[in-house]
Write a structure and sequence with these properties.
The chain is of the alpha/beta class and 343 residues long. The protein has helices at 11-23, 38-48, 57-64, 78-87, 102-111, 127-138, 175-178, 181-191, 281-294, 302-321, 335-338, and strands at 2-7, 28-34, 52-54, 68-71, 91-94, 117-119, 144-154, 194-202, 213-220, 225-231, 233-245, 249-254, 263-266, 325-326. The chain folds into two domains: 2-119, Rossmann fold, CATH 3.40.50; 123-279 and 305-329, Dihydrodipicolinate Reductase, domain 2. Residues 2-112 form the Gfo/Idh/MocA-like oxidoreductase N-terminal domain.
Length: 343
């Protein structure tokens, strides 16, 4: 059995991680949970039948020696906690965003030594996304040309009463970093590397330090172009992706997760996924555990896990500087490599 620990016992641990782990109960055992709020940790453990509750990550790692740790804490804690787990000999599965900068991400990768840290971008793993990538790789849709990537969500003022939200130091960014990353990650998994981005970001209404809206135009290495919108000001919420290929248009409309019914293709005869797996934590966890059992680098770790954070960095760099930014510019001497607001 793979011994698993949960760090952070808030809503995402309860609603996302525990159901995913329950679906893998034949090969995982949740041995401990950690939360700085001891009473909350104990209540979480009691609700899910977890034997040990802790308030200190280091103590849990020393006593329990888990094989895999799920990091479900606020973003500003991720880099330090992930590195601590890796150095203790555990694999890590971390909620998005994996950290607050490319510099932090590279420190995480440098700490891998027979252990790996993967970020949670579950939309890559639904059957619709997997089928689309197979069609693209096989050439059935023709070359990709145009894409739309829209995260139009709504978060009211009360949402930002949580102290770490909407601040560069603790959340790392606004909806570009904390909300739109799921759709942008799925777009990148289909279209590949980008070369140039031109962006704007603005705080229009919400009581935050960061933006509450961002928009970007993107040129990809394969010649395709995309338009990207991230918003938390949209009362009618929707997540929307559109890919126009030479021979077909593929669209995805959903909110926080999709099944095959959320996809359409024109012409429709090209769209026949062999299975129907919703995008979910459970869908991605299967791949992570398979990689663990084989001793191989899991999906969305290392360079693959860095891809979307790099895109977010380029978007912010363009928005702050008011000029186009090339992917090749995001080197260690670039201020946006170290902070997403450029310092």
């Amino acid at each position: 059995m793979i011994r698993v620990a949960i760090v952070g016992t808030g809503g995402i641990a309860d609603l996302g991680h525990m159901p995913a782990l329950a679906a893998e109960r034949h090969r995982v055992q949740v041995v401990a949970a950690v939360d700085v709020d001891g009473s909350r940790a104990k209540a979480f453990c009691a609700a899910h039948g977890i034997p040990q509750a802790y308030i200190d990550l280091g103590e849990m790692l020393a006593r329990e020696r888990p094989d895999l740790v799920h990091i479900c804490t606020p973003p500003y804690l991720h880099a330090r906690q992930v590195v601590e787990c890796l150095r203790a000999g555990a694999w890590v599965w971390c909620e998005k965003p994996p950290c607050l900068s490319l510099a932090e991400h590279d420190r995480i990768t440098a700490a891998e030594s027979g252990t790996f840290a993967a970020v949670i971008f579950q939309h890559r793993f639904g059957s619709g996304a997997r089928h689309l990538r197979r069609l693209v790789t096989g050439g059935e849709l023709g070359r990709p040309m145009v894409a739309l990537c829209v995260t139009a969500w709504y978060r009211d003022h009360t949402y930002y009463s949580v102290p770490w939200r909407g601040r560069w130091e603790t959340e790392g960014g606004g909806p570009t970093m904390g909300h739109g990353v799921h759709q942008m990650d799925l777009m990148l998994s289909v279209l590949g590397d980008w070369e140039e981005i031109r962006a704007m970001a603005r705080r229009i209404d919400r009581p935050v330090e960061t933006e509450d809206v961002s928009m970007a135009s993107v040129r990809f290495a394969n010649g395709a172009m995309a338009s990207v919108v991230n918003s938390v000001l949209s009362p009618r919420e929707e997540s929307y992706l559109r890919f126009d290929f030479a021979e077909a248009t593929v669209e995805l409309r959903h909110l926080y997760g999709y099944s095959n019914d959320n996809w359409t293709c024109t012409p429709p005869h090209l769209w026949k996924p062999p299975d129907d797996v919703p995008s979910s934590h459970a869908a991605q966890l299967t791949y992570l555990l398979d990689a663990y059992e084989r001793g191989e680098r899991p999906p969305l770790s290392g360079a693959e896990g860095r891809q979307t954070l790099e895109f977010v960095t380029g978007l912010y760099a363009s928005a702050f500087t008011g000029r186009p930014v090339r992917r090749s510019e995001l080197t260690m001497d670039n201020p946006f490599y170290h902070r997403l607001d450029g310092g």
